[in-house]
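task queued by scheduler; priority normal; single chain, no ligands, no partner chains; default sampling; output format set to structure tokens
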Amino acid sequence: MSFHSQGSHTSQISMKMFRNNRNRVVQALKDTKKIKNEESTFVILQGGTDDAFGFYDTDTNQTAFRQESYFQYLFGVSEPDFFGAIRVSDGHTILFAPRLDKEYEVWMGPIASTDQVKARYEVDEAFYVDELVQVLSDKKTSLLLTLSSINSDSGKLYSPPTFPGIEKFPQDADILYPVIAECRVIKSAEEIEVLRYVAKVSSDAHKKVMKMPFTKEKHYEYQAEAVFLAHTYYVGGCRHCSYTCICGVGNNSAILHYGHAAAPNNREIKDGDMCLFDMGANYFGYCADITCSYPANGKFTDDQKLVYNAVLEANLAVQREAKEGVNWVDMHLLANRVMLEKLKEGNLLKGDVDDMINVGLNYVFQPHGLGHLIGLDVHDVGGYLPNCPQKPVQPGPNKLRFARDLKAGMYVTIEPGCYFIEPLLKKAYNNPQQARFLVKENLDRFWNFGGVRIEDDVLITKHGVENFAVVPRTVEEIEAWMAENDEVPYVPYKD
């Protein structure tokens, strides 16, 4: 098991999980047959930094420190400004801690010794960062494997480590990245248990939000966010959220990444609004990403039921078909096809569904991909590695964050959606190829509908999927849950 007891509250993660991660990467590096002198070759990674003066020109931090994901994957270190090294021949692991001034103790508490660092993180050796060059020299290092890559989602560069004296050692920035990224794609048994835990915490938090009396008294979107965050921290011990909470109601539910600084979850929730709440907790770096959609008053109208069931059927169709060997692009198109067929049955569309997809009408109603890999990053690495299929060009699939065949051990979101986004609908109305499929007299009543997204976090197996999101999903389940008057208490999980 990856958990061990921490009193009566929640669970900490065993360092065994990170040791196993290191062993997986070391073995995968050996399997490449690209390293000549394994006994003198070291992987070297730089952890995240914490600039106390980085919050503009003040001496405060904006948020609690969160470790860089690759460093977290290999070492599980919770503090900033560390370096880590792993010998490829045997996985011998060394951590290098910052040498902190004695004044640190006055303000921040006791300083861990290198022996304490070694014991806490269960590594073979620990030194200070200013000893890094000497230690690597003493170990006759012939090659440093550094990590350098461009994130295929953000486009941002992961820069190799830098420290005074690194130029003394030969370096390779090409070998490590595809190996460690692919290791992160397939989750270990220990990682799966952590992901199951954070999905459970997030699911329960969503269920607590659903109990809020949105229309019985005045509420705002940010209050739904606050209830979610309070539950995940108080009950689940999740200090971090995986991303900025998306709490859109009414028209805001059609804004795909709502909740940002220019639209900060601040609209009043009104009777008749459709809510789209996309929120996920983060535990020791591991993410959940769950979206629930439902009417604020707890009772679906016929139109809300039509759109919701179209999205739900798309989600369930993928869950029935997804398994090892199935192509993710095919799953995206399956979800699109099912949803468009349901909208056609509801007299919002007309004509042949495949013809609709051929002219990109699927993109009009769902302008994002079906889902993404998830793990230490909410949009996890490994989508478009050098040996993977590259991004499709077809409208709709071209928004996918990966286009691979599924493998057992992958952890992905399934999140079809249907949105009535004014600029996309207007463009479709003015496009003869697309407009011929639109039943305008019926679609016109949906201009202020917003949108629906149903997002689950699922583990891919050889024969299907295991869904870690446990929330009311059918119309009947949602209405029954929201109609119950009992409160969901803030009771911390017990070991």
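post-processing summary
- The first strand starts at residue 3 and ends at 5.
- The chain has a mean pLDDT of 94.
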